[in-house]
Amino acid sequence: MDPEKQRFLTTLAQYPEETATAEYKSGITFDQDDDFGAKLIKHILGLANAGGGYIVIGFKEDASGKLVPDSGMNATVSGSYETTRLSQCVDKYLASGQRVELQVHKIEVTPIVYPVISVQGFDDSPLFCGREFKGRDGKLILKEGAIYIRDVAAKTVIIAGPVQFRTLLKVAVGRRQAEVLNQLRSLFTEMGLSLPPGIAASPNATSDAQFREWSEKQRAIAFDELVKSRKRI
User: How far is CA 1 from CA 5, 9, 55, 100, 106, in A?
Assistant: First the structure.
């Protein structure tokens, strides 16, 4: 892991605060067959459909609602979270042919080691829940066919309205833009060109404007070269 990412993940554990991209869960051993494990899987699907994010294990809310280290967090709990096992468990609850991209990092904030689950956003299409899971109370925790997403209120919900659809659409468009830029980058590299550093970053309104400006400049340069070559003939 590169130092910058290590510092970022450590910050998540040092200064816990739930956001649209960061979820905090109690220090409970992972088991795909219990309610906690099913809820964790739901949050992973929601983050993936919202473009990605992080889940930090080992925190709970105190009486005032502030996130504090869970006294139940120990080496056994931390050791139950591993990348391969967690990925395989999540994949079992996805629609056929789909899989999630995630990685479990172990972040030490002495003397506790916190598992931090890094979830990647979906690539080609949103992730669908492929099977249901009922909790001990008989209520559905995971619903077959549902598309879960993380909303701006830091909650994982089933897409059921225009706000959630807009979030999903924004992620999908961003993924498509990234794909187009990667294709162009490969093409320009073959031609001996390269995209400016700012454009190589994640697509957004600024990078789109930079790309259009850069494209116009390249077209103008090419046109000038064509005019000059004709004059030399």
Answer: 7, 10, 17, 20, 11
